[in-house]
Amino acid sequence: AQKVTQAQTEISVVEKEDVTLDCVYETRDTTYYLFWYKQPPSGELVFLIRRNSFDEQNEISGRYSWNFQKSTSSFNFTITASQVVDSAVYFCALSAFTGANSKLTFGKGITLSVRP
Amino acid sequence: NAGVMQNPRHLVRRRGQEARLRCSPMKGHSHVYWYRQLPEEGLKFMVYLQKENIIDESGMPKERFSAEFPKEGPSILRIQQVVRGDSAAYFCASSPPSRHTGSSYEQYFGPGTRLTVT
Questions:
Q1: Nearest 5°: phi and psi at A51?
Q2: Cα B33 to Cα B46: distance, rounded to the nearest angstrom
Q3: Chain B residues with CB inside 8 Å of A103's CB?
Q4: Which residue has the higher pLDDT, A29 or A93?
Q5: Using 50, 70 and 90 to split pLDDT, how confident is the model at A54?
Q6: Does A53 touch chain B (CB under 8 A)?
Q7: pLDDT band at A56 (very low <50, low <70, confident <90, very high)
Q8: Fewest beta carbons less than 10 Å away: which of A100, A103, A107, B95?
C-alpha cells in the first residue's frame, strides 16, 4: 500500500522568508513518481513538479526547489524568498511508475500562509 | 487545446436528491480519474475509468456512488440519495493512453465541482 505523510499542517511565514514543506512517503514499488501540487484559495489544483524515483538530482525552478532523498523516502519542497501569492495548500502525491493505472495517493496537505 | 472541464462548478442538493457530476477529459485522453476532497482533507482516489470500462473502483463507497465513461460524451459521477457527508469537492483528472514502454502519464486536473448538501 502507498502512503504519503505531510506532518506539518500549517506554516506561517513573513514575506521574503524561506520555507520548506516536508513530505515522507511509503511504497513497496521500486519505481514510482512523486508530485507536488498547489491549491490556491480559488480551489483549483496547480501541478508543480513530477519526479521519477530513479532520478535523485535536486531540481530548481525559479524560487522553487525540490530535494529528493530516496534513502529517507522524502521529497521536500523549498520556497525561497516567499511571497504573499505563495499562500496556498500544498499537496505531495505518489503514483505508480508503470502500467495504465496511475492513480495518485495524496498527503493531507500543508496550509502555507505568507504574511506581508 | 482545452483543458479538463468539469460541470457544474458548484452544485447544491438537498438530502435525498441525486447529484450528477460531469467531466470532459482533454482531447485525446481516454483515461479518467475521480478524486474527492473532504473539508480539511487531502484528495482521495475514488475511481479510474477508460472508455466504457471501470478499471479500478477501489476508492468508491460501496453504496449510492457510481461512475461511467461512455464511448461518447463526458464521464459521469453519480451520487444517489445524497447525505450531508457527501459535501466535498470532486475533482476529475485525465491522462492519455499508456505508453508502449509501460511508463505512465501524468494526470491533468479539472477545476473541480463543489457539492453542498443541505
A1: -130, 130
A2: 7
A3: 33, 45, 48, 56, 59
A4: A93
A5: confident
A6: no
A7: confident
A8: A100
Q: What are the Cα distances from residue B108, in Å, to A14, A20, A112, B32? A: 32, 25, 23, 10
A49 touches chain B (CB under 8 A): no
Residues of B in contact with A45 (CB under 8 A): 43, 91, 109, 112
Please report, as a single letter, which amino acid is at residue A110. Answer: I
Say which range, A30-39, A50-59, B42-51, B96-105, has the weakest mean pLDDT.
B96-105
pLDDT number for residue A101: 78
Give yes or no for a contact between A110 and A7, defined as CB atoms under 8 angstroms apart: no
C-alpha cell at B69: 465513461
CA pseudo-torsion sign A25, A102, A105, A80: positive
Residue among A35, A31, A26, A58 nearest B95 (CA)? A35
